[in-house]
Amino acid sequence: MEYETVIGLEVHVQLKTQSKMFCSCRADYQDAPVNSRVCPVCLGLPGTLPVINKKAVEYTIMTGLALGCEIPDLTKFDRKNYPYPDLMKGYQISQYDMPLAINGRLDITADGQDRCVRVERVHLEEDVSKLQHVNGGSGAKKTDAHSLVDVNRSGVPLMEVVSHPDMRTPEEARSYLTKLHSILQYLGVSTANAQDGSFRCDANISLRPVGQEEYGTKAEIKNMNSMRSVFLALNHEVERQKKVLDSGDRVVQETRGWSEERNVTYSQRSKEEAHDYRYFPEPDLPPLVIDRAWVEEIRNKIPELPADRLKGLMDEYGLPEYDARLLTNSKAMADFYEQAAGLRPTAEVAGEKFAKNVSNWMLGDLSRLLNLRDLEIGESPVSPEHLAELIGLVDRDAVSVSMAKTVLEEAFESGGSPAQIVQEKGYTQISDSSAVDLAVSQAIDANPQAVADYVGGKETAAKFLVGQVMKITKGQAKPELVNELVTGALEKLK
Ligand SMILES: [Zn+2]
Questions:
Q1: Based on the domain organization, do 120 and 142 belong to the same domain?
Q2: Among 256, 407, 416, 423, which is least packed, fewest CB within 10 Å?
Q3: Beta bridge partners of residue 117, listed in sequence order
Q4: Which of 402, 425, 448 is the last residue of a domain?
């Protein structure tokens, strides 16, 4: 049987506000001492009242607008009841049937195809506490098993972006997440840092026979903290559900976890239905009437988004779409690029050639060095100024391309200026033919067999000798010049 995969995503995003969602505790809990960002409100003590964080509402409306959503005039908060120790109050304040933003869309490209993924809603809720289980774990028979609660995260504004089940492959899901992630960073509403939990994804996935309208039974995969995990987990789930259906069994509606170590999804619990949570309107908060003038004010604050920036880089710098797409995936990358590309040091080199060189170095060697050290572009020890300087040295023939790679590595280690490194280490390119001539004679004297091969008609032997000359000159000779002199010397010997 041929199946079609159906995927919908729910993304939880912590908002970059000063204070928590309903109290005045600071929201930057990540590096704070355990249980230090706490007050009676987020601790859920009786007699306290929540107050809505206006900035969080603004950020959610802004995200909704950027995703092409409608912003209804009226919105409200609801209580979602469930008993679990990560909720101090026994309920979470969320939004049930009247979210802040509805009916948006996100256009993606995956596997060379364009697809529009409809965004069902964007709503606002509060994050929950962090639990740490001590001496627990499966199979453990310890009498001192217990859990610790860190309330710092409880009450941090959490925005949820819910898509319709419009994705058909794990690749499309990954593309949706990449694009959403980049939009959030451009908007500046969240750090969207997946590693520290500011950007978390749950995925609903089901299969149905090709041609069937009705959706199959879905499984929800929770707790994925990277786009790579989502991609791998979905791929695994497609195969698992296929096997279940092919064997004549039924897929069970349930929540599944993703094990990074074992590369499999595993059953966690049967999936709750919305009515299990006994949602009801939050009695401590009045419904919110959204002022249209305020919405327009927020709309005007939306900065340039990835799609516009991509077009801008192509128009202004003549970059190919492939380069522009990679560079604009992250705002920090695009900013770095524009800073460096605006610093063309030599007028002799055409602006477009320089702009493309900056892109090549950033997407090539610089990205490689950053990945090796697990650094973001914003943490690059090589500044945009230094990268531009290095490319200028290559353009002026002051260093060869291969030597420039060494210089970049050294600048990356030391944070120093490439021009200074070249000067101090004597990396200057030798374009003086008398110095190269000497190296050519040395190479020819030392390799009679290669010379004989060349004279005998084997032209590739010249390449070997060019390599030898580069070795003798420690890579500093200008390659075109070496080529010319080696060929000239060999021709004389024929
Ligand atoms: Zn608090």
A1: yes
A2: 423
A3: 106
A4: 425
CA of 41 to the centre of ligand 1 (A): 5
What is the distance in A from the centroid of ligand 1 to the CA of 340?
43
Q: Specify whether 243 is located in the same domain as 372.
A: no
Which band of pLDDT confidence, cut at 50, 70 and 90, is reported for residue 428?
confident
> How many domains is the chain built from?
3
Tell me, in angstroms, the distance from the centre of ligand 1 to residue 182's CA. Answer: 30
Q: Residue 392: how many CB atoms within 10 A of its CB?
A: 20
> Is a pLDDT exceeding 70 seen at residue 168?
yes
For residues 19 and 90, membership in a common domain is answered with: yes
Q: Examine the domain organization and report whether 376 and 483 are in the same domain.
A: no
Of 210, 89, 84, the C-alpha closest to 147 is 84
244 alpha carbon – ligand 1 mean position (Å)? 47
Domain end, chosen from 245, 274, 299, is at 299
pLDDT at 216 over 60: yes
CA of 127 to the centre of ligand 1 (A): 12
Query: Residue 144: is it exposed, middle or buried by C-beta count within 10 angstroms (0-12/13-18/19+)?
Result: exposed
Tens digits of per-residue pLDDT, 57-109?
999 999 999 999 999 999 999 999 988 888 888 899 999 999 999 999 999 98
C-alpha of residue 15 to centroid of ligand 1, in Å: 16
Position 159 pLDDT exceeds 90: yes
What's the 42 CA to ligand 1 centre distance in angstroms? 4
In this prediction, residue 432 has a pLDDT band, given cuts at 50, 70 and 90, of: confident
In terms of Cβ atoms closer than 10 Å to its own Cβ (0-12, 13-18, 19+), residue 439 is buried
Element (H or E) spanning 241, and its range? helix 227-246
Q: In what order do the strands lie in the sheet with 3-14?
A: 101-110, 113-126, 157-163, 3-14, 199-209, 219-224, 254-259, 264-270
**Å from CA of 265 to ligand 1 middle:** 36
Domain that holds residue 351: 304-425
Separation of CA 57 and ligand 1 centre (Å): 18
Identify the H or E element spanning 255. strand 254-259
Same domain, 311 and 238: no
Q: Does residue 481 have a pLDDT over 80? A: yes
* 62: CB partners within 8 A, 6+ apart: 187, 189, 298, 301, 302
